[in-house]
Every structure is written in structure tokens, then in C-alpha cells.
Amino acid sequence: MKLYVNTTSPFVRLVRLAIEEKGLSDRVELEIVDPWADPKAFLAANPAGRVPTLITDEGHAIAEAQLILRYLDQIAQPSVFPADDLAETLAIAAPAIGATEASTAIIIGRKSLPNFDTDMVGSKRFRSIAEGLKRLDGNLPRDFADRPDIANFAAVTLLDYVLFRFTDRDWLKDLPALRDWRERQKGHPSVEATMPYI
After folding, report:
1. 86-192 adopts what CATH topology?
2. Is 50 helix (H, G, I), strand (E, B) or coil?
3. What 8-state DSSP symbol labels residue 143?
4. Which parts of the chain fold into alpha helices (H)?
5. Who's near 22: CB < 8 A, 6+ residues apart?
6. What is the pLDDT of residues 49-103, one digit of tens each?
7. GST N-terminal domain: from which residue to which, for each copy (predicted)?
């Protein structure tokens, strides 16, 4: 299999966490692309020009992180979407994924509007991030050591992305439970192997 990635995308990280936790690393070739450069082979696989995009062994191109996660659950365990407490797990993951989408919207918005952060849309996106983090602080996911799942994937991805992209803000100052939760995930192999970088 081949996974089109870049090194900063939080949605790529969601998929890479699953690949690591499912022991699929030796079956998936990572190809780093610049989605903004519209590489021909990448656009042939995904006309939307978005990472991640997975090419299966059979040659099927699957775009969008949630769809790729569904496919990976079909071919390898453990499941990212646990059956025993699925609704609770998804309820924890949802605000983290929403806040991650808001974070990437800011980064993209800045490419076209220099004052994006302070206009109406940018301000709302920052509010979404803060609210998502606050909700996680009040409803923590399991630790990775207990069980990897979509909730802790989404939480660690959001946290590390906002700390990586928005260094001028102290996101965790008033969120002690979430800060302690992130500290406990340090050293976990999948978390360390998938950290964003430029």
C-alpha cells in the first residue's frame, strides 16, 4: 500500500497512528507530497488534492482520513472504533476532530487573507479550538497504554497540532487534566513516531 502524506497534516497523523498501532508500518509506503503543488500522480489518485490518500494493494484510491480508518479497521486489528463503548469514544473524539478542522482552516485561511486570524471566520475558528480543548479536559480519552482508539488519536493529534502551529498561545494553561493526560502519552511508540514536523 502507499499513503500520500505531508509531515504536518493532522489528518495524516490520524491515519499514521492507526497504521502504527495495527502493526502495518511495513506494509505501507509513505510518499511525502506538497498538496499545494498539485503533483500529477497525487491528483490522479485524489482529484481533491488532499492528504491523506491511501492506495490499496489492489490499486483503489481512498481519500479522507475517516474513510481510510474504516478501511484499515477492515484489514487489521485492533479496531480504531471499539464496539464495547463506541458512542462514548466517538463523543470524546468529536470535539477534538472539530477543533482540528478549525485549526487547519486557520492555516489555510492565512494563505489568502493576511488578517484571517482576527476576522469573523478566523475568530470563530479559534473559539472552536479553545472549546474543543476545554471539552477534552472535562472528558478525557483513555491513555494509549490502556487502549488505542479514535478518541486518543484525535486528542493527541489536536493537542500536538495546535502546540506546533500556534506557538504564541498557552493552550493548556487552564486545562490541567488535559495537560497531565498528554504528559502520560510521552514515550508511547506510535505517538512519538508520528509527531508533526517541517
Report:
1. Glutathione S-transferase Yfyf (Class Pi); Chain A, domain 2 (1.20.1050)
2. coil
3. P
4. 10-21, 40-45, 65-75, 86-112, 120-138, 150-165, 176-185, 189-193
5. 72, 76, 77, 78
6. 999 999 999 999 999 999 999 999 999 999 999 999 999 999 999 999 999 999 9
7. 1-80
Give start-end residues of each CATH 3.40.30.10 domain in the chain: 2-75
For 49, list phi and psi in degrees, rounded to 5.
Answer: 65, 40
Cell numbers for 57: 494493494
Residues of each domain in the chain carrying CATH 1.20.1050.10: 86-192
In terms of phi and psi (left: phi > 0; alpha: psi -120 to 50; beta: otherwise), the region of 80 is: alpha
Task: Determine the pLDDT at residue 114.
Answer: 87
What is the CATH code of the structural domain delimited by 2-75? 3.40.30.10
Residues 6+ apart with CB under 8 A from 49: 35, 38, 42, 43
| Residue 76 near residue 19 (C-beta atoms within 8 A) | no
